[in-house]
Amino acid sequence: MVLGALSPRARNAQVAMYQAGEVQYIVATDAIGMGLNLDVDHVSFSAVQKYDGRRHRKLTTAELAQIAGRAGRHRRDGTFGSTKAMGPLEPDVVSAIERHNFAVQEQVFWRNSDLDFRSVDALLASLRRRPNLRCLILDKQGEDQGALEDLARSAEVQDLASDPDGVRLLWQICQVPDYRKTLTGSHVELLGRVFGYLRRDGVLPDSWVAGRIARLDRTDGDIDTLMARIAFVRTWTYLSFQRDWMRDPKQWQERARTVEDRLSDALHARLTERFVDTERRHRVPSAPAARVLDAPDGSVEVAFDGRMHFAGQTVARLVGSDDVFRPHIKLIGMSDAAPANRQQLRVRLERRVRDQVDVLVGPLRKGGEGLQHAGRALLYLLERHLGSVPVSAVRRELKAMTSDERTALQALGVNFGQRLLWVPQALTDKAVRWRVLLWALRHRLDPMPRLPGAGLETLAVDSSWPVELYVAAGYEVRGPLAIRADLSSRPPR
To answer: Three-state DSSP class for 300?
Structure first.
């Protein structure tokens, strides 16, 4: 495993296993594209987007090329592609990578280097100064500047930073990296304490530093816990290398390095135990897993209660998540399968659900071209409602829609009824059963509901289930009856 959050020692230990041939595959984030030379023959992308610390975004073609370039390198030609679950890369992206044809960088982020340390407010003002060239973009989201803005709200910090020396020290402290990427106030709180100690006492108290590092000197816990401790101890390593911040900096450098090495070794062992599993890595997958993986698409049946069956055997069940279209998969009876095969099976079953969702709303997702805001919004609401939506929920969009947009939506199969909007593929018997299941999973209903005669024009309403369930299935509730969208919207005879 190669992740950006790994310490160099843990990362190098994982890479060494691969280079030594102890494992056949290496799984990595885009961190593999930075400073690693590996004997890789093929790079297979499973995703082409990432969270960059600010937002979720697509990788640029240049970034994809840097990752793909890990294969082969200068010794021999390598290949790149994508996993079946992700689908093929766009042809123009492939061509650009192969031809080294990348967009010209016309703008770069910029920040003023002529800083004003007369006061905290003056420093902030100088950091916010805009560039005078069109090719430069003001970088407003630096972690150090964000920390300074947060600390500037403290009256105590303002008092301690009352002269240029204090402001310079505060800015230096704000540049201490947040290795933990906590996205909370804990890092800023630490910086505030460091500033207070240095400003009042000139150095960080030995007892305080010792206590904070000692709390991290533990090798118990799971992978995430160990990674979090390593990230935090790296902060103390950074602090120990700052000039005159500690009485005996070499002592604390060695202490922090020792703790980081111990945690890194434990993390490497935990990663190996979980993802390599030397006793199982050459084992043939358990019989049920192998049979499902080799079976043709559509051979896994999904029951109304979310259980997934193959050849009469329950192999998994769907578990609710916050995304109505992507319930979680919990495998059943697969504990003897190798970890890699369990993951393959989970991906296979996720694809089974995704294929059915595409039948429901796939055409809606592909039909937004040429629509204005109101039309796209209505299409989105139809999708989120699994194929039918009450008119009362989209009155604003309907009012703002042009006649051309209505025509375009009708061409996509959208029916405009008096009370409901719907698409025909969402009202079949199979589609209604899936809609009930997905909605019930999203709302964590227990027990799972079952609509007798799902897909019929009318159903008797069961008062023990929420009315919203029938609406989500494509019905309008009128007293004791639930009437299917197409029948409900017919004009009276």
So the answer is: coil
